[in-house]
Amino acid sequence: MVNQIKPLVADWDFDAVSLGFPSPVRNGKIVSEPKHLGKGWVGFDFKKALGKPVRIINDASMQALGSYHGGRMLFLGLGTGLGSALVWNSYVLPLELGDLPYRNGSIIEDYLGEAGQARVGEKVWQRDVQHALVQLKKSLIADYVVLGGGNAKELNEIPKGIELGHNRNAFLGGVRLWQIDSRTRQPKWQIL
Fold first, then answer.
1. pLDDT in tens, 12-50
2. Of 172, 167, 165, 163, the residue nearest 145 (C-alpha)
3. Where are the domains of the chain?
4. Longest C-alpha distance within the chain, in Å?
5. Alpha carbon of 29 to those of 55, 58, 85: distances in Å?
6. Bridge pairing between strands 82-88 and 91-95
7. Domain pair 2-58 / 61-170, same fold
């Protein structure tokens, strides 16, 4: 990946890199190999490879951070799997809601992600997603839910208190990762 990126950004002027990664990330480190990519990510030194300071968070957390506009927001990303994060005030709590137990010994992302959509069909997938959105919003006491990811736009109905996000919000999330609180001179956003 780095070998492919370097020539593409060779003529760019930038000071830092924000990386949204599709796997659990803790304290700026990739915790486990992603389900849907190859191996070799855990322990990789992106700062050394890219020659710039790097901040890494989960990809759903990055999109959530860019989608946030106040209150207590739950972000759900409908894509290959189910990305999730909770954002409030200056906090971002990455979640792994896709691993919640669901029907028949499965996990919820097996039903709400791409594989579930293909397996159960459009009508059942729509029903399952609608139900999960309402229940997760209620369970996590969210003021609103932002629904992102590639499959969010496929929903026929959006329940009350749910809004469609956009994948491009991840770019704003990447910028916000580097914001500094003017009073404390510390990072504005705490990634828990």
1. 999 999 999 999 999 999 999 988 788 989 999 999 999
2. 163
3. 2-58, 61-170
4. 52
5. 9, 10, 17
6. antiparallel
7. yes
3-class SS of residue 33 = coil
CA distance 64 to 86: 8
* Cα–Cα distance for residue pair 170/188, rounded to 1 Å: 17
Angle at 166 between CA 103 and CA 147, to 5 degrees: 30
* DSSP secondary structure of 74-91: EEEEESSSEEEEEEETTE
CATH topology of domain 61-170: Nucleotidyltransferase; domain 5 (3.30.420)
Name the stretches of the chain with pLDDT < 50: none
Q: 24 is written with which tokens?
A: 């659990």
First to last CA, the chain: 27
CATH architecture of 2-58: 2-Layer Sandwich (3.30)
Structure-block tokens of residue 155 = 């929903």
Q: Is the entire prediction scored with pTM above 0.70?
A: yes
DSSP label at residue 31:
-
Q: Which helix (H) or strand (E) holds 131?
A: helix 122-139
Q: CB within 8 A of 35, min separation 6: which ones?
A: 22, 23, 81
Burial class (CB in 10 A: 0-12, 13-18, 19+), 108: buried
